[in-house]
Amino acid sequence: MAKAKAKIYARVLVDSLKEAKQHKQTEIMRAFKTLLQKRGDVRQLSAILREAEKLWQDTEGKLAKLVSAEALTSGDKESIEKCLNKVGYRMEEEIDPKLIGGMALILENSFVIDNTVRGKLQRIAKLL
Q1: How far apart are CA 73 and CA 2, in angstroms?
Q2: Which strand (E) or helix (H) includes residue 69?
Q3: Model pTM above 0.70
Q4: 73-111: string of b/e by CB count within 10 Å (b at 16+)?
Q5: Helix ranges (DSSP H) in 1-128
Q6: What is the pLDDT of residues 60-100, one digit of tens each?
Q7: Can you tell me the distance from the alpha carbon of 114 to that of 8, in angstroms, rounded to the nearest whole number?
Q8: Residue 122 CB burial class (10 angstroms; 0-12, 13-18, ≥19)
């Protein structure tokens, strides 16, 4: 019963925050906390926030960051973005001229593919 209640609260919270402008979100969070206090459900706050985070990621998509030395062609960018969208990621592109060449794909906060020149040189250095 408590888990179902947390999911309901989370859905209400995410829907409220999604529709609100940035400056109104703080007000919404305060009102939400007051509501939980009045209903005696403050102890469920951590469970509610965990559920809300899952829902938010489902609506916004998980972040995949593509870091490259120069901008991708529109065809390459579309192709990569399409593949990432299929598995629930939204792509954010970052240009970093310090990379010299190649690209790295970071899903959430961990490297998945490091095909940069710097990464290749570091792997070669480890072998020597």
Answers
A1: 50
A2: none
A3: no
A4: eeeeeeebbeebeeeebebeeeeeeebeebbbbbeeeee
A5: 2-19, 22-39, 45-60, 74-86, 117-127
A6: 667 889 999 888 888 988 999 898 888 878 888 999 888 88
A7: 40
A8: exposed
